[in-house]
Amino acid sequence: MVKQQQFEYAYLFGSVCPERGIGEAIVVPWVNKDIMTNHLEQISKATEKGRHAVVIMDGAGWHTDDIAREFNNVSTINTN
Fold first, then answer.
1. 79 contacts: CB under 8 Å, gap ≥ 6
2. Domain locations along the chain
3. Long-range own/partner contacts, residues 4-12 (CB < 8 A, 24 or more apart)
4. How many other CB atoms are there within 10 angstroms of residue 38's CB atom?
5. What does the pLDDT look like over 32-75, one tens digit per residue?
6. CA 23 to each of CA 14, 16, 48, 80: distance values in angstroms, whole numbers, following the listed order
7. DSSP 8-state assignment for residue 30
8. Which pairs with CB-CB distance under 8 Å and at least 24 residues apart come from 12-20?
9. 27, 48 contact by CB (below 8 A)
10. What is the pTM of this model?
11. Out of the domains of life, which is the source (predicted)?
């Protein structure tokens, strides 16, 4: 018997600040630049005044250099 197999996926975006012992995360059913920008916004809001967050990205399609431009306290580094 032939049976169709369908899968549902979830994607986790996460970040941590070991020094402060805090983190931010979202779980979403798909990924794109808007979702990544939303996560960077979370990071920006959690970053204390006078501090700067650095996010290391692995070069996925939605990890573009322009996504952090609107946040003056977040920078991204692409590893590819």
1. 56, 57, 58, 59
2. 11-78
3. 11/35
4. 13
5. 999 999 999 999 999 999 999 999 999 888 888 899 999 999 99
6. 7, 4, 13, 25
7. S
8. 13/39, 15/39, 15/42, 15/43, 15/53, 15/55, 17/46, 17/53, 20/48
9. no
10. 0.84
11. Bacteria
